[in-house]
TrEMBL record:
Catalytic activity: (2-aminoethyl)phosphonate + pyruvate = phosphonoacetaldehyde + L-alanine
Cofactor(s) recorded in Swiss-Prot or TrEMBL: pyridoxal 5'-phosphate
SUPFAM superfamilies named among the record's database cross-references: PLP-dependent transferases
Family (UniProt): Belongs to the class-V pyridoxal-phosphate-dependent aminotransferase family. PhnW subfamily.
tRNA processing keyword on record: no
MF-aspect GO terms: 2-aminoethylphosphonate-pyruvate transaminase activity
Lineage: superkingdom: Bacteria
Physiological role: Involved in phosphonate degradation.
Assigned keywords, A-Z: Aminotransferase, Pyridoxal phosphate, Pyruvate, Transferase
Record protein name field: 2-aminoethylphosphonate--pyruvate transaminase
EC number: 2.6.1.37
Length: 362
C-alpha cells in the first residue's frame, strides 16, 4: 500500500473526492448518454476559453498532454510549411523533437530557461526567416514555472498571416486566456492540470477555419486532429477509438467544480494566493526563487538548492513521509527543485508544508 500524500506537482495533481468518485462506474464508450457528456464538456471548454461555437471547436485526443501537442504538430503542418518554435524550457524543446521526428521544417528560437520569450526576439526571427508559416510557444513553461507573455507575442505573429500554436497545458483553466483576442489558432491543454481532473486525455481548442484547412495532412492515424474533429461532429461526440471513459466522467465533474469555485478568475486567485504564500514562506526559510517575480507563474515555483551539498533525495523522502510530494528540478544551469500549488491545494496546506520544511531543515 502506498502512504497517502498531497501532490504538489503540476499534474497529475490532487483531485477532489467527488472527482475520484465519478470514476467509480464502468461506462460504455459509444452509448448516447456518454456521447452527450463529451459534447457537453467540449462546449464547456469553449466557454472557459470565452470563444463561440461558430468560430472555434474543442477536440479531445486520447493520451497525455504530449499526445495533444503531437496531434497538432503532426497533423496541421504540411511538408511545405516552416515552423518557428520559441524555446525556453523542456516543453518547447519537445516540440522541436516532434518536428524532427516528422521531418517538419523548423527554426528554433532558443532563450535562456530563466528568461521569458520576448516580442523583440520573435520579431527578429520573423524578419530573418520570411518562410515561416507556423509559430509555436509555451504559455507557462512548467520546466521552471516561468510565464511567457503570449498576449504580447501571438497577436503580432498572427498579423503576419502565421498560424499560431500555444501549449497552455499547465495554465488553461488556472490563468485567464483570451483565445480570440490573442489570435490563437490552436491551444492545447490536458485533463489533469488546472481543470483538476485525472490523467488520460488532452484537448485542442482550435479555430475552425484553420483546422478545416488541414484535411489529409496527418502523418499518423491516431493523432489525426482533423479526423477526430469530423468524427465528433458527424457522430454527436463519438471518439474515434476507445476513449478514457472514467477519465471523461472525472473531467466532467471537475469542470462542474471549476464553475462552482467561480470560474477561471476565482481559481486563478486561489492559485496566486497559494504561490505567494509558498514563495514568501520559502524565502523566509532561506530558499531563493529561480524566476524573477515579474515572470513567475501562479502554477509552480523553482527553488535554488540552498547549499552546494543540499541532498534533494533525502529532503524529498522526508517531505513524503510528512505527506507532501514535490518535484525535482529540470534545468541545466542551476540545481533546483520545484513545488507546484495547483489542484485541491489551499492556504492551510501551504502553511502545513512550510511547517514541515521548517522542521526538516532545522
Ligand atoms: C505537462 C505539460 C505537457 C505535457 O506533458 P505530459 O506528461 O505528456 O502530460 C506539455 N507541456 C507543458 C507546458 C506541460 O506542463
Amino acid at each position: 500500500m502506498v502512504e497517502k500524500y498531497l501532490l504538489l506537482t503540476p499534474g497529475p495533481l490532487t483531485t477532489s473526492e467527488k472527482v475520484k468518485q465519478a470514476m467509480d462506474f464502468d461506462y460504455c464508450t459509444w452509448d448516447d448518454d456518454y456521447k452527450k457528456i463529451t459534447q457537453s464538456f467540449r462546449h464547456s471548454l469553449l466557454e472557459l476559453a470565452e470563444v463561440k461555437e461558430d468560430e472555434y471547436t474543442a477536440v479531445p485526443i486520447q493520451g497525455s498532454g504530449t499526445y495533444g501537442v503531437e496531434s497538432v504538430i503532426s497533423s496541421t503542418i504540411s511538408d511545405d510549411d516552416t515552423l518557428l518554435i520559441a524555446i525556453n524550457g523542456a516543453y518547447g524543446q519537445r516540440i522541436s523533437e516532434m518536428a524532427d521526428v516528422y521531418g517538419i521544417n523548423h527554426v528554433d528560437l532558443v532563450v535562456d530557461e530563466r528568461e521569458p520569450i520576448t516580442l523583440e526576439a520573435v520579431t527578429e526571427y520573423l524578419d530573418k526567416y520570411p518562410d515561416i508559416t507556423h509559430f509555436a510557444m509555451i504559455h507557462c513553461e512548467t520546466t521552471t514555472g516561468i510565464l511567457n507573455p503570449i498576449e504580447d507575442i501571438i497577436p503580432y505573429v498572427k498579423e503576419h498571416g502565421i498560424v499560431t500554436i500555444v501549449d497552455a497545458m499547465s495554465s488553461f483553466g488556472g490563468i485567464p486566456i483570451d483565445v480570440k483576442n490573442d489570435k490563437i489558432d490552436y491551444l492545447i491543454s490536458s485533463s489533469n492540470k488546472c481543470i483538476q481532473g485525472v490523467p488520460g486525455f488532452s484537448f485542442v481548442i482550435a479555430r475552425k477555419e484553420s483546422l478545416e484547412s488541414t484535411k489529409g495532412m496527418a502523418r499518423t492515424l491516431s493523432l489525426d486532429l482533423y479526423s477526430q474533429y469530423i468524427e465528433m461532429e458527424r457522430n454527436n461526440g463519438k471518439w474515434r477509438f476507445t476513449s478514457p471513459t472514467h477519465v471523461v466522467h472525472a473531467f466532467y465533474e471537475a469542470l462542474k467544480e471549476l464553475n462552482e469555485e467561480g470560474g477561471v478568475k476565482a481559481r486563478n486567485q486561489r492559485y496566486q494566493a497559494n504561490q505567494k504564500h509558498l514563495a514568501t514562506g520559502m524565502e523566509e526559510l532561506g530558499f531563493k526563487v529561480l524566476i524573477d517575480e515579474k515572470w513567475q507563474s501562479p502554477i509552480i515555483t523553482s527553488f535554488i538548492y540552498p547549499t552546494a551539498d543540499f541532498d534533494f533525495h533525502k529532503f524529498y523522502q522526508q517531505l513524503k513521509s510528512d505527506g507532501f510530494v514535490i518535484y525535482p528540478g529540470k534545468i541545466s544551469h542551476v540545481p533546483t527543485f520545484r513545488i507546484g500549488n495547483i489542484g485541491e491545494v489551499y492556504d492551510e496546506d501551504i502553511t502545513n508544508l512550510l511547517q514541515a520544511i521548517k522542521e526538516i531543515i532545522q
